[in-house]
């Protein structure tokens, strides 16, 4: 009796001439084209044209995928060891850069607020002209943005869609008008209120954005969200009740600034984002700062120009106003870096840290009065703002997880198609 012995890499298969075809081992059927033995008779070639049973094929594909994944992990570990842990160094470097961007933004935002307070406060530099100061900032930023985009061409303006006159008039001008009013009123509040109390009032920004978002149908009313907004408002009300230097006109100016800024943020989503227009801080200054300057000319002519004529003997310090404007422009660059390298949510979280630092600085250096009632009320508002940022962060994580799952499904579908193609090619071979 003739016995044929076929030796595979790990197994030995014995075949009898009269043996049924089903006795052929699956390991021989899986890779018939990879083993060409001169001792293999020609009648076995008929088995090569038959496809594998679905169960065996699925099992071997899974084993193959696990083997490839194991090899990939082994290669990654080996490369990591050869490079001295380069992957860990890259992650650490990215984390350090993110914290650096956050620190730069906090420092510049802190500096601009304190600098503006120093210039406008009658007890300090005593130049109470908030419209003029805002116009200086807008003129300086417009000039630098023009040089960066048009002269040095370091930043490209948006090309799709192109910024036409109609689009500029319908989308950019309303945002510029709101931005000019927000800057005017917020700078005016520094004349009447302390830095610490202004930061407490700014905690109402999420409330204003959420309320105006519902008004423009950009936010969905939720009971939990509204209760959180009420808790923030309640905390700010307690802080206002405990304010030692409470000024009704100053509070009105700051609340108006918050309302205008919140409306501007919502209109950016409606007028710009929905139309596919993406502006970074430099291109935003390039388009918005000139129209802000133009809008502020009207109230400046009636409110501050006559007073400036009376104070003609006053000569502004070029160093002070120049460095102040440079800080304002650098703050926009920091926003560009922070949002571009991390996210807008990171800036919101960093803003909470900045507010606490400003409150501590206002109390310890400027000697503003901060009462226990102030801190208690702002503590309640702070918890509400922290919860608001937490909800936003969870929503962002869920969105990213959904996106990754969708990408994984697409990759799995493509892999299955490749495997089906391999099976067909093997069966044809």
TrEMBL record:
Signal peptide: none annotated. It is a multi-pass membrane protein. The keyword Transmembrane applies. GO terms for cellular component: membrane. Residues 51-82, 407-429 are annotated as: Disordered. The keyword Transmembrane applies. It comes from the Eukaryota. The chain crosses the membrane at residues 96-115, 135-155, 167-185, 191-216, 223-242, 248-272, 284-303, 318-338, 345-366, 372-389. Residues 100-389 form the Sugar phosphate transporter domain. Residues 417-429 have a biased composition (Basic and acidic residues). Its main location: membrane. Pfam families: TPT. It is found in: Membrane. Keywords: Membrane, Transmembrane, Transmembrane helix. This is Sugar phosphate transporter domain-containing protein.
């Amino acid at each position: 009796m003739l016995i044929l012995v076929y030796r595979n890499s790990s197994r030995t298969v014995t075949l009898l001439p009269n043996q049924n075809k089903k006795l052929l081992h699956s390991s021989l059927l899986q890779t018939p084209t990879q083993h060409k033995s001169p001792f293999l008779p020609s009648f076995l070639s008929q088995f090569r044209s038959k496809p594998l049973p679905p169960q065996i094929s699925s099992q071997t594909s899974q084993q193959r995928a696990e083997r490839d994944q194991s090899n990939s992990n082994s290669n990654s570990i080996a490369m990591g060891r050869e490079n001295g842990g380069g992957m860990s160094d890259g992650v650490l470097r990215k984390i350090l850069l993110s914290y650096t961007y956050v620190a730069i933004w906090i420092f510049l935002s802190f500096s601009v607020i304190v600098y503006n307070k120093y210039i406008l406060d009658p007890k300090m530099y005593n130049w109470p002209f908030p419209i003029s100061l805002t116009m200086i900032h807008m003129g300086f930023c417009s000039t630098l943005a023009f040089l960066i985009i048009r002269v040095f061409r370091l930043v490209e303006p948006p090309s799709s869609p192109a910024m036409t006159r109609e689009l500029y008039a319908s989308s950019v001008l309303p945002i510029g008008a709101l931005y000019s009013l927000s800057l005017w009123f917020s700078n005016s509040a520094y004349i009447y209120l302390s830095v610490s109390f202004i930061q407490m009032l700014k905690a109402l920004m999420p409330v204003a954005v959420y309320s105006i978002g519902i008004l423009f149908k950009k936010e969905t009313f939720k009971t939990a969200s509204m209760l959180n907004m009420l808790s923030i408002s309640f905390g700010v009300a307690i802080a206002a009740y405990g304010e030692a230097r409470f000024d009704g006109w100053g509070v009105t100016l700051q609340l108006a600034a918050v309302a205008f800024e919140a409306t501007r943020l919502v209109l950016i989503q409606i007028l710009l984002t929905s139309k596919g227009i993406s502006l970074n801080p430099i291109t935003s200054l390039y388009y918005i700062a000139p129209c802000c300057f133009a809008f502020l000319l009207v109230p400046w002519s009636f409110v501050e120009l006559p007073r400036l004529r009376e104070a003609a003997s006053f000569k502004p310090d070029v160093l002070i106003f120049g460095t102040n404007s440079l800080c304002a422009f650098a703050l926009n660059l920091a926003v560009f870096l922070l949002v571009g390298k991390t996210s807008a949510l990171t800036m919101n979280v960093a803003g909470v840290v900045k507010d606490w630092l400003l409150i501590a600085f206002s109390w310890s250096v400027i000697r503003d009065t901060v009462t226990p009632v102030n801190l208690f009320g702002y503590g309640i508002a702070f918890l509400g703002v922290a919860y608001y940022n937490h909800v936003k962060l969870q929503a962002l994580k869920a969105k990213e997880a959904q996106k990754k799952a969708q990408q994984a499904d697409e990759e799995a579908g493509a892999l299955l198609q490749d495997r089906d193609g391999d099976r067909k090619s093997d069966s044809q071979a």
